[in-house]
Write a structure and sequence with these properties.
The structure holds 2 protein chains of 2 kinds.
Chain A: E1 15-21, H1 29-35, H2 46-58, E2 62-72, E3 75-84, E4 86-95, H3 103-110, E5 117-118, H4 121-136, E6 143-151, E7 156-164, E8 175-178, H5 185-192, H6 207-223, E9 230-234, E10 244-248, E11 252-258, H7 264-270, H8 273-276, H9 281-297, E12 304-309, E13 316-324, E14 330-337, H10 344-348, H11 367-382, E15 390-397, E16 405-413, E17 419-426, H12 434-438, H13 450-466, E18 473-481, E19 486-494, E20 500-507, H14 514-518, H15 531-543, E21 547-554, E22 563-572, E23 576-590, E24 604-620, E25 625-634, E26 637-646, E27 655-666, E28 673-686, E29 691-705, H16 714-717, E30 721-733, E31 744-754, E32 763-777, E33 781-791, E34 794-795, E35 844-857, E36 861-873, E37 895-906, E38 909-918, E39 923-927, H17 931-940, E40 945-949, E41 953-959
Parallel strand pairs in A: 1-3, 4-7, 8-10, 11-13, 14-16, 17-19, 20-22
Antiparallel strand pairs in A: 2-3, 4-5, 6-7, 9-10, 12-13, 15-16, 18-19, 21-22, 23-24, 24-25, 25-26, 26-27, 27-28, 28-29, 29-30, 30-31, 31-32, 32-33, 32-34, 33-35, 35-36, 36-37, 37-38, 38-41, 39-40
Helix pairs in contact in A: 3-4
Chain B: H1 2-12, E1 18-27, E2 30-33, H2 34-47, H3 56-78, H4 86-101, H5 105-114, H6 119-139, H7 148-158, H8 165-195, E3 198-200
Antiparallel strand pairs in B: 1-2, 1-3
The chains are: A alpha+beta, B mainly alpha.
Chain lengths: ~950, ~210
């Protein structure tokens, strides 16, 4: 029986109880009590029942609600019978296919959004989408099913798509229909590149290959001047596994420039018909505009460009760009007057027009840009309250009587500045914005500008957002008095309801310990629902380095409930990663390593190939820590390193720790071979975004062998050395791009202390400071400079130490080469052995590098002019700016080198080739004989020196900027 | 004896639960309950001066009107459109009583009660109609442009042309504006229905 059949049966009767079925509801009891307009011991009203259903449903937590009433004693008992709604949780796949598509693409194509309402009808569309994706990638017979796991506590469904992809189909020779007179079917087949390279048969079908294949055919037509060619791929689905290409070459279209010389490459760049693969009036007009701008940038300020398209005749048509360049000009002067509020520098920063300079030989001018600059200047004024500003410009040809010289004059009539006389706020009730409102830009007395209002809106809305008012809106209104130039502003805010965090739900953890994730959360139950806190949490989770993806969402975003679940769905990254690397160095690094060969102390051209292998295990025992093994093998070095990385050590968010052990066998200094066994501990403090501090302790045992030095020094220098060093390293990095910086600064300071308290056999202090700055000159030119200074004074010198430099050989400063001083080969700067001429390093260093970096050709090839100066010095007292070598035993002077380099930009950094000319390379005595002869003559004190000199020309080839 | 036993059993039985209301249609986050459908039906009949007919066809029609109403209400909430205040609502009821019941509020109350309605029900409905008009005026009417040609065509085809055009121009423009605004509203409602997830829990109300 339905109550509607008995209208008003219960109307006015007292309600004795209000119950819910099931008893466990998705909302808390107090929330329900707030929502329900019906209360116990109040009269029953049908309108209130209706309202209760509407409000409960509006929370989004229910799929269906029904209310029944039972007569009970002197009143009625009400019962709400509810059915919960569900929300999308983790969407996963189980599949055996090989990519593409990736599992991420499969999940994405299902279009099931985390936290959104879920019903099973969505799965039909999802599976259809997945089916389409798989078919496009050559899996024509996939079987797709799904599995649902319901979580009643959070009303969440985990959806797993089970995909049995089957085999991927392969292309075959395409069936070509249409006009094949221009390109034959065989040529089209070849152009698609669907055939295997060298092997018989065809490649597997993928979306990307299909698209590229069609594009390649289109490109082939374009190269044959068939700009209107259409190429369509049909077929390729479960019903038809043979690709069908329908081609229509269209007429032969020639695009020519008349009246001025324009290369084909420039035409292709400026006229968009080539890129768009079609010809229409809009594209041709755009081509005219582009060519006009192109010629104006060359100095032809009066250029006129029109196009003429001829009708198609005998399958051919021609498009002529008629160019009348006029006289070539040079923009000599850009004048601005009438400006009082802004200075010239401020205005010029916003202008496109630039008078002629080193970078712009003819200046930079175009008619369109002149108009744009008028607008830019006017916008700047308007955004600062000058609503009535007028900006006009005029040009003057043959400026100051010189033919071809051009000048532009901008005249600004600022008008009056409008200011805010009164700022009112309406609708601010729930949130205390007193501090924020005091700092808004549109205060009384400040300039009136829509730019300021937009900024104020951003500030106010951010406050509301951070405090859980997700639905707050902002509007503004103004009353402008044109006579007094005063404006009354009103900001109206609709706050909406404040929302809070009900709970934070994380899903997707398989091996990671939950408390590792919990420690990263920046929001807790009861907190206002803040998008910035959510984003901060997401960042912290990504920073752990153990998650491939961190998806975040608010569950039931459109529901009217005040408390919301915040969801983080985590995808753990693959725990093991292996990286192989190949590289090479080509410079004066060659020469024999044998101790008996004393030739080439200055190095000879050499090539050193290099391979590396890294193996990393992430998320060790689910703790977020990782273990890695890194190895490198080249003709100069064998290295193996095992390290253990702990992010956020001791739960301190800005501290990481690394413990490592290292074995290194290196011959990068030609004087000796060193074997190093080292253990180290490092703590990193991420003080702020640009500032990082490293605290390290290293304990190492370094042995040297194959020493190419005065045999009398061998007893002192050939011994193994134990060194324990505690060091502190501060890095400040404010560069815009660490790989290829264009502006900013980079400072480092490294201070180390080796002392017997740390187990060191030799006590010394090591200080090394570096300062690099980068300045943009114009748009594309960068002036970069770097200075390095370091000293390494020893104290408590052991009795058997080398008196000239008590620091053990491997611990000294070494320098020279592609990253320090390009006037000498790698590690060849500074003091040398007086008998053999091999470098010995020093305990002081000074290098200064200056580079002018500029575009050379196209977008990827840059040039560099550089000047390097400096040296490694025996000790800090020997540091000098003197540029003359006093004698063959004097190496404490500044070496200078000038050079030129080429940089080729690649995704991994610039490929670098530098050619340097050293103005004053060091001369030194070498030994023209065998090592046995050296030993004999040194005992007798009659060794014959062979005067040698580092070559004036040095070359270096590597990846990455010099600094 | 048997009758006595039966009576005793019946008296001893607990009272049966009666469904007093449930969701008939859901549209996004809004719902239309069964009682609301019936109320709509009764109100439409009352305002038309007819007796309510609770047939399936009439219920379907009432549900369709309610659905449109919910879509408009949702848009008005999101866009913060102004709503009629309490004084305005009372004024509408007074005007209604004046127009149809010679200002006899008691007579109006009795007439409403006969059809299972209250004064509050009538007040709510009149206010909703007024709010819909506000929505139409603010949302669609300003964008309607009436060309001179349209005015002239209307004058030529739909009037007897006994009065000069300039005397009826304003009326014609207002009429055409109303018509066009209604067309815009219908188009908007159609679009909203497509975009909104609408579920008919009471299958009898589905179109």
């Amino acid at each position: 029986m339905r109550a509607q059949d008995l209208p008003n049966q219960f109307e006015g009767q007292p309600i004795v109880s209000v119950a819910f079925e099931p008893a466990r509801q998705p909302l808390e009891l107090n929330e329900i009590a707030d929502i329900l307009p019906l209360k116990k011991d109040t009269p029953y009203r049908a309108t209130l029942v209706r309202s209760a259903i509407e409000r409960l449903y509006g929370t989004g937590r229910y799929q269906d609600i029904q209310v029944d009433a039972t007569a009970s004693g002197a009143g009625i008992a009400l019962r709400f019978i509810t059915k919960n709604s569900w929300f999308v949780g983790t969407v996963a796949t189980e599949t055996n296919l090989s990519e593409p598509p990736t599992t991420g693409q499969i999940v994405s194509t299902a279009q099931l959004t985390l936290g959104a309402p879920f019903d099973e009808d969505q799965l039909v569309t999802a599976e259809q989408n997945i089916h389409k994706l798989l078919v496009a990638d050559g899996y024509f017979r996939p079987q797709i099913s799904h599995r649902l796991e319901y979580n009643e506590e959070y009303q969440q469904v985990k959806i797993t798509f089970v995909v049995k992809a089957g085999k991927r189909f392969h292309y075959s020779a395409p069936e070509v229909s249409g006009d094949t007179s221009v390109l034959s079917a065989k040529e089209i087949d070849k152009a698609t590149k669907w055939k295997n390279f060298l092997l018989p048969g065809y490649r597997g079908i993928t979306q990307s290959r299909s698209r590229t294949g069609v594009d390649n055919v289109r490109l082939k037509y374009q190269n044959a001047n068939r700009l209107r060619a259409t190429v369509t791929l049909e077929g390729l689905d479960e019903n038809n596994t043979k690709p069908r290409l329908v081609v229509e070459p269209g007429p032969l279209v020639e695009v020519k420039a008349e009246g001025a010389k324009v290369s084909r490459k420039t035409l292709k760049q400026q006229v968009p018909v080539f890129e768009e693969h079609t010809v229409d009036a809009d594209l041709l007009a755009e081509g005219s505009n582009n060519l006009r701008d192109y010629f104006q940038a060359q100095g032809y300020f009066e250029v006129d460009v029109e196009y003429e398209q001829q009708a198609v005749r005998d399958g051919k048509t021609q498009i002529d760009y008629l160019i009348t360049t006029g006289i070539r000009h040079r923009l000599i002067y850009v004048g601005i007057d009438g400006n009082k509020y802004f200075n010239q520098k401020t205005l010029r920063e916003r202008m496109y027009l630039i008078p002629s300079s080193f970078e712009f030989r003819r200046g930079r001018y175009s008619e369109a840009s002149r108009r744009r600059d008028e607008g830019s200047i006017a916008d700047l004024y308007r955004s600062n309250g000058f609503r009535d500003v007028k900006v006009q410009s005029r040009t003057e040809d043959d400026y100051k009587g010189k033919t071809g010289d051009f000048a532009v004059f901008f005249t600004i009539t600022e008008g009056m500045q409008y200011t805010v006389s009164l700022l009112k706020f309406e609708g601010v009730e729930k949130l205390d914005l007193s501090k924020t409102l005091q700092s808004v830009s549109s205060q009384a007395g400040q300039v009136f500008s829509e730019f300021n209002i937009a900024s104020d809106r951003e500030t106010i809305m951010q406050q509301y957002g951070a405090n859980g008012f997700a639905n707050a809106t902002f509007a503004w209104d103004s009353k402008i008095d044109a006579e007094t130039h005063l404006v009354e502003l009103t900001f109206t805010i609709h706050e909406g309801e404040q929302q809070f965090v009900r709970d934070v739900v994380t899903t997707g953890l398989a091996t990671t310990r939950p408390n590792l994730v919990t420690r990263q959360l920046r929001m807790h139950p009861g907190d206002p629902l803040s998008p910035s806190a959510m984003a901060d949490t997401q960042k912290r989770l990504y920073d752990l380095g153990i998650f491939a993806q961190v998806e975040m969402a608010i569950q039931n975003p459109d529901g009217e409930e005040k408390q919301k679940y915040v969801l983080f769905d985590l995808e753990e990254a693959r725990r093991y990663s292996i990286t192989f690397g190949f590289g090479a160095e080509f410079a004066r690094i060659g020469g024999s390593n044998a101790v008996t060969d004393l030739s080439d102390p200055g190095g000879s051209p050499g090539f050193s190939p290099r391979v590396s292998l890294d193996l990393t295990r992430l998320n060790f025992f689910g703790t977020g820590q990782s273990v890695s093994f890194r190895s490198r093998l080249s003709t100069l070095q064998k290295r193996a390193n095992i390290s253990y990385f702990i992010p956020r050590v001791f739960s301190l968010p800005k501290f990481d720790a690394t413990f490592s052990i290292l074995y290194d066998d290196t011959h990068d200094v030609r004087t000796f071979q060193s074997k190093r066994e080292e253990a180290s501990a490092q703590f990193v403090h991420h003080v702020s975004k640009p500032i990082t501090v490293f605290y390290r302790f290293n304990y190492r045992n370094v042995g040297v062998s194959n020493l190419k030095i005065d045999p009398l020094l061998l007893p002192r220098l050939a011994q193994s050395v134990r060194v324990g060093v505690a060091s502190f390293n501060l890095v400040q990095d404010r560069r815009d791009d660490p790989i290829d910086p264009h502006k900013g600064i980079y400072n480092t300071l490294d201070v180390g202390w080796a002392t017997r308290f740390f187990g060191s056999q030799t006590s010394f202090v090591r200080v090394l400071a570096r300062n690099a700055t980068y300045y943009r000159l114009g748009e594309k030119i960068v002036l970069a400079r770097e200075t390095q200074v370091g000293v390494e004074p020893a104290y408590r010198v052991p009795a058997n130490a080398d008196p000239s430099d008590p620091i053990p050989l491997p611990e000294r400063f070494y320098g020279g080469g592609g990253n320090t001083l390009r006037g000498v080969p790698e590690n060849q700067a500074g003091p040398r052995d007086v008998l053999t001429g091999f470098p010995l390093g020093g305990s002081a260093v000074f290098f200064n590098n200056t580079e002018l970096r500029f575009p050379l050709y196209g977008a990827n090839i840059n040039g560099v002019i550089f000047e390097d100066a400096g040296n490694i010095f025996s000790n800090w007292r020997a540091m000098t700016l003197r540029a003359v070598q006093n004698d063959v035993k004097d190496f404490d002077y500044m070496v200078h080198a000038l050079g030129f380099g080429i940089r080729y930009r690649t995704p991994v950094g610039p490929l670098r080739f530098d050619l340097a000319y050293s103005i004053n390379p060091p001369k030194y005595n070498g030994f023209a004989g065998s090592y046995v002869q050296l030993v004999q003559c040194s005992m007798q004190g009659n060794c014959q020196a062979s005067l040698q000199q580092i070559s004036h020309f040095q070359f270096f080839f590597s990846i990455g900027q010099a600094f | 004896m048997r009758r006595l036993l039966l009576l005793t059993c019946l008296v001893g039985l607990p009272a049966a639960a009666v469904i007093v209301d449930r969701i008939a249609i859901s549209a996004g986050s809004r719902v239309i309950t069964e009682s609301e459908v019936e109320l709509r039906l009764r109100l439409s009949a009352f305002e038309s001066g007819l007796k309510p007919v609770l047939s399936p066809a009439e219920r379907k029609l009432a549900a369709a009107r309610l659905l449109d109403q919910k879509l408009v209400e949702r848009e008005m909430d999101v866009g913060h459109y102004p709503r009629l205040n309490e004084d305005g609502r009372k004024q509408l009821v007074r005007e209604y009583a004046e127009q149809y019941f010679q200002s006899d509020a008691a007579a109006m109350g009795r007439a409403l009660a006969q059809d299972g309605l209250t004064v509050r029900d009538l007040e709510d409905d009149l206010a909703r109609q007024e709010d819909l008009l506000t929505f139409l005026n603010l949302r669609f009417r300003p964008a309607v442009q009436i060309a001179e040609e349209d005015v002239q065509t209307y004058f030529r085809t739909k009037t007897n042309r006994q009065v000069p055009l300039n005397e009826v121009r304003t009326q014609i423009e207002k009429l055409l504006t109303n018509e066009r605004a209604d067309v815009e509203l219908d188009a908007w409602l159609k679009e909203q229905r497509k975009r909104t997830k609408i579920e008919y829990l009471d299958k009898d109300l589905a179109p």
